Amino acid sequence: MKLVTAIVRPDKIESIRGALESYGVQGLTVSQASGYGRQRGHTEVYRGAEYTVDLLPKVRVEVLVSDEWAGDIVDVLVATANTGRAGDGKVWVVAVEEAVRVRTGERGDAAL
């Protein structure tokens, strides 16, 4: 099993969710996050005062999938989240030793 994690722009979450559901993903976790990458935040002007926004709002999407689905899920996430501008985000994949469905006690791929 693999845990595919993506940090993306908040305005992309609905299109990502739709694309993952269309692909056949039955469950995902979405959390609010904040951070920065190479762009190191940005400067804004509010009521004439200039200030720096160091931590930008992001969304963290996590999907637990079988090994053979991981590459395809990464491709779906990258294609859907891409705007071509700095700050589009990152996607990474981590191996998962075991997963257990709490309600039934199912383990491994059956728990997905």
UniProtKB/TrEMBL annotation:
Protein name, per record: Nitrogen regulatory protein P-II
Domain of life: Bacteria
The UniProt record lists the keyword Transcription: yes
Pfam family, one: P-II
Record family assignment: Belongs to the P(II) protein family.
Gene: glnK
Known partners and oligomeric status: Homotrimer.
PROSITE patterns for this protein: PII_GLNB_CTER, PII_GLNB_DOM, PII_GLNB_UMP
Repressor is among the record's keywords: no
Keywords annotated in UniProt: Nucleotide-binding, Phosphoprotein, Transcription, Transcription regulation
Origin species: Arthrobacter ginkgonis
